[in-house]
Amino acid sequence: MEPDAYRQFADFEEKHWWFRARRRIFFHLLDEMLPRDRALDVLDVGCGAGGLLRRLERYGRARGLEPYREISIIAGERTGLPLMCASAYDIPLRDDSQDLVCLFDTLEHIPDEARALREIHRIVKPGGVAFFSVPAYQFLWSNNDQVAHHCRRYTRGRLSRSLCSAGFAPDRL
Length: 173
Prior knowledge:
Blueprint: H1 3-15, H2 17-33, E1 40-45, H3 51-56, E2 60-65, H4 69-79, E3 83-84, E4 98-104, H5 113-123, E5 124-133, H6 143-147, H7 156-165
Parallel strand pairs: 1-2, 1-4, 2-3, 4-5
InterPro entries: Methyltransf_11 (IPR013216), SAM-dependent_MTases_sf (IPR029063)
Pfam family, one: Methyltransf_11
GO molecular function, one term: S-adenosylmethionine-dependent methyltransferase activity
């Protein structure tokens, strides 16, 4: 998407019922999974314009990773949080440094998912959480997927195999 389109989409995403309901589900699940007794190191991979990144701050030290410079600038302006303009293939963080790594509808955009998943596994602390949301079922593929530059859709089995191949032990799918 073009930067202006990201700004418009970010405004739309903030108010539309679909995205509001989706946020409630994501954060309900995260609230159930995460410890609340300490501040966590949190990374939002593919943070886009930062709508969900801003909300991750409630868990601790949140920062975003976005591969497109123009979009990372928008996210920084909107959130005031630290942003890294980098690829999911080469995340500029230490091994085992993140308590929570989120990919909210990001994995389907990454051509080499195996490489990105190995890199994400590298930075998640032992006992940490990697949280993924992905579009379901290839048979639902539509023009919207092409416009959004999706590479694939997922079944539970496909996602589980991809995560296991990268070293994750999926807890909930």
